[in-house]
Amino acid sequence: MKNRLRELRAAKEWSQSDLAERLGVSRQTVNAIETEKYDPSLPLAFKVARLFKLSIEEIFESNGR
Amino acid sequence: MKNKPNLPDEIWLGRKDYSFWTDWKVNGWLFAATIISAMSDIMFPHVVREWPVALRTFIAVMPFLALVLWMRSLAGWIRGMDELHRRITVAATLASVGATFFFVVLWHRLERAGFFQAIFPPARTSEATWDISTVGHIFLLMTLFYFAGYRFFNRRYQ
């Protein structure tokens, strides 16, 4: 699944560890999502969306379409 | 509110995040089960065999009570992980349990077939057996397969 997480995080000048702490996940999880090796669960996607005050569709885009 | 998830590296000896206290909290009961099992394996043939059957049964079952408590603490620790590590850990645990089951059953069948005795004929005075169905052996096998599985499943997310 494509996403804008790295771009949004960079705009806030947060490190992966900063973002991980805000989301309550590990740095490896943030890295795996950014590199598109792992698709987050719906609750985590909502958490990301809420943190950046965007909708899920504005952050994540399905490859399947 | 605790915002830091549990990390598998916290109980992986030698890793940067290793914590003896966390390891003890998670695996303390497994250690206890291994010690109880080893002690009773050593003492059963000579000492415990003379005791009343109720006591012998209690000693035989005791490691399993400790294992139930270990599984409880392990489940609690896995629940405290973030979703990626929970996924990797559950996959590695299932692989470890499956591989250990396969290995022990295969080993048992080879032993029953006389495979090991044919390759390594026992000394007449030796009491050693090829039995590996002790908690200590299974603990070692599960640990080995868990770390192999963890490395395998973790690699795809790095």
Give your account of this protein's structure.
The complex is a heterodimer of chains A (about 60) and B (about 160). Chain A has helices at about 5-10, 15-25, 25-35, 40-50, 55-60; strands at about 1-5, 60. Chain A is mainly alpha-helical. Chain A has a single domain (about 1-55), classed as lambda repressor-like DNA-binding domains (434 Repressor (Amino-terminal Domain), Orthogonal Bundle), CATH 1.10.260.40. Chain A has a two-stranded antiparallel sheet. Chain A is globular, with a radius of gyration of 11 Å. The model of chain A has no long low-confidence stretch (mean pLDDT about 95). Chain B is mainly alpha-helical and about 160 residues long. Chain B has 2 domains: about 5-80; about 80-158, no CATH class. Helices cover about 70% and strands about 0% of the residues of chain B. Chain B has 5 helices and no strands. Chain B has helices at about 20-45, 55-80, 85-110, 115-120, 135-155. The mean pLDDT of chain B is about 85. Classes of the chains: A mainly alpha (about 60), B mainly alpha (about 160). Chains A and B meet through helix 3 of A and helix 3 of B.
How are the elements arranged and paired?
The complex is a heterodimer of chains A (about 60) and B (about 160).
Chain A: E1 2-3, H1 5-11, H2 16-23, H3 27-34, H4 42-52, H5 56-59, E2 60-61
Antiparallel strand pairs in A: 1-2
Chain B: H1 20-43, H2 53-79, H3 83-112, H4 115-119, H5 135-155
Characteristic terms for this protein:
heterodimer; A: mainly alpha; 434 Repressor (Amino-terminal Domain); B: 158 residues
> In terms of quaternary structure, what is this?
heterodimer
- Largest sheet, strands/sense/barrel of chain B: none
- Helix fraction of chain A? 55-70%
Helix content of chain B: 55-70%
Distance between the termini of chain A: 10 Å
Low-confidence stretches of chain B: none
The biggest beta sheet of chain A reads:
2 strands, antiparallel
Tell the overall outline of chain B.
Answer: globular
By CATH's scheme, which homologous superfamily of chain A applies? lambda repressor-like DNA-binding domains
SS summary, helix count of chain A: 5
Number of strand segments of chain B = 0
**Poorly predicted ranges of chain A:** none
Strand adjacency order, main sheet of chain A? 1-2
